[in-house]
From TrEMBL:
This is MFS transporter. CDD domains: MFS_NIMT_CynX_like (cd17339). Keywords: Membrane, Transmembrane, Transmembrane helix. GO terms for molecular function: transmembrane transporter activity. It holds the Pfam family MFS_1. The chain crosses the membrane at residues 44-66, 78-95, 101-119, 131-148, 168-187, 208-227, 247-266, 278-295, 301-322, 334-355, 361-381. It comes from the Bacteria. Coiled coil: none annotated. It comes from Marinobacter psychrophilus. The keyword Transmembrane applies. Gene3D superfamilies: MFS general substrate transporter like domains.
Length: 392
């Protein structure tokens, strides 16, 4: 590898990591201040459930736009444009009233959905011999961004004299940094590259692709419910707002460990089924502990929850790469699985809010979440079998 190629690879890696850092703060920064925002606008639990649902729903709705935009602009230029829109949405959403809050959050979710679809194809294309490792590393970066936002947004609000708007707007800063870094690392050659048109069997007719999409959707439903509702659940059980935000942050930080470790360990096994089952078991135990368990063991529950969710999500992204034979197949699988999966996942936070309103507590919601975890395990046992999508 020449010095130029080495430099371009390093720049591409840094750009990829900075983009990954921006794929969750727009979502995880809402959860710690959900009660504060609700009080500011006098919103019910159902309305707050809609607020936490919107970005996830738009993750799925916007995902099919990714290949269309990439075919027109090129993959790298598409990421650049979407990063700019994300930064603008994060700037506008706290200062445009209730409608702006909902609209900005939805647009941010759509931007994240488009970038999330494109990244697995970039990994498969640029790092074909280290796909599992690179997927784990960028998933760890993604989880780190989520953890930092979850843990520091409430302290930022206190720093800004109890004002939640500047604390929420703060998260446009990493988007701007990623935008500048992505612009710098792009070469003229890359900007001009456009993917070829994809032909052959429709990904929507592939059984394995549907199994991966189902696993992606169910485990993501739990993840976004945790992002949106875990601090509120813990506060309702007697934990302070700052400590609840730190608990969510700690849980997400634990995801960094398993996000890297789970795909690497699974790559030494025949397939991913055993590791998926272990990760989902940790998720179920952690959720049950947070909702039903003693609060003097709260840190144990959030650690188990984080380890399970980091590994489960990283394995979902790994499936998008290793279940395809080439970058084109990875892109098609990523678009299909993330679109359907996130649309499915969007209903998790919403239904949890409805169950909280109807029942007046978290008991029914807890049973609902455990059922989703069991469903994700079953789907993962199918999706984790060795094989490739789009094979005749």
């Amino acid at each position: 590898m020449s010095k130029l190629e080495t430099r371009q690879a390093i720049q591409a890696f840094i750009g990829l990591m900075l983009v990954a850092l921006n794929l969750r703060p727009a979502l995880s920064s809402i959860g710690p201040m959900l009660r504060t925002i609700g009080n500011s606008f006098t919103l019910s639990s159902t309305a707050l459930g809609i607020l936490t649902t919107l970005p996830v729903l738009f993750l799925g709705l916007a995902a099919p736009l990714a290949p269309k935009l990439a075919s027109r602009l090129g993959i790298e230029r598409t990421v650049l444009v979407v990063l700019a829109v994300l930064a603008l949405a994060l700037l506008v959403r706290p200062y445009s009233g209730l409608a702006g809050l909902f609209a900005g959050t939805a647009i941010a979710g759509g931007c994240i959905g488009i970038m999330g679809v494109l990244l697995p194809g970039i990994v498969k294309r640029d790092f074909p011999n280290h796909a599992s490792l690179m997927t784990g590393i960028y998933t760890a970066a993604l989880c780190s961004g989520a953890a930092i936002a979850a843990g520091t947004t409430e302290p930022l609000r206190e720093l800004f004299h109890q004002q939640w708007r500047p604390a929420l707007a703060f998260w446009l800063a990493p988007a701007v940094i990623a935008l500048v870094a992505w612009w710098v690392q792009l070469s003229d050659k890359k900007l001009g590259v456009k993917p070829r048109k994809l032909r052959g069997k429709s990904i929507y007719r592939d059984r394995l692709a549907w199994q991966i999409a189902l696993y992606m959707g169910l485990q993501s439903s739990l993840a976004y419910t945790v992002f949106g509702w875990l601090p509120t659940i813990l506060q309702d059980r007697g934990i302070s707002a700052v400590e609840a935000g730190l608990a969510l942050s700690a849980s997400i930080l634990m995801q960094v460990v398993s996000a890297i470790a789970a795909p690497l360990i699974a790559s030494q096994m025949r397939d991913q089924r055993a590791m998926i089952s272990l990760m989902m078991l940790l998720v179920i135990v952690g959720l049950a502990g947070c909702i039903y368990g003693p609060m003097n063991q709260m840190w144990l529950w959030v650690v188990l929850l984080g380890l399970g969710q980091g590994g489960g999500f990283s394995l979902a992204l790994t499936l998008l790469v290793v279940r395809a034979r080439d970058a084109d197949g990875a892109g098609r699988l990523s678009g299909m699985a993330q679109s359907l999966g996130y649309i499915m996942a969007a209903f998790g936070p919403l239904l949890v809010g409805v169950l909280r309103d109807v029942s007046g507590g978290w008991q029914a919601a807890g049973g609902f979440l455990i059922a989703i975890g069991l469903g994700a395990t079953l789907a993962g046992l199918k999706a984790g079998r060795d094989g490739y999508v789009l094979d005749d």
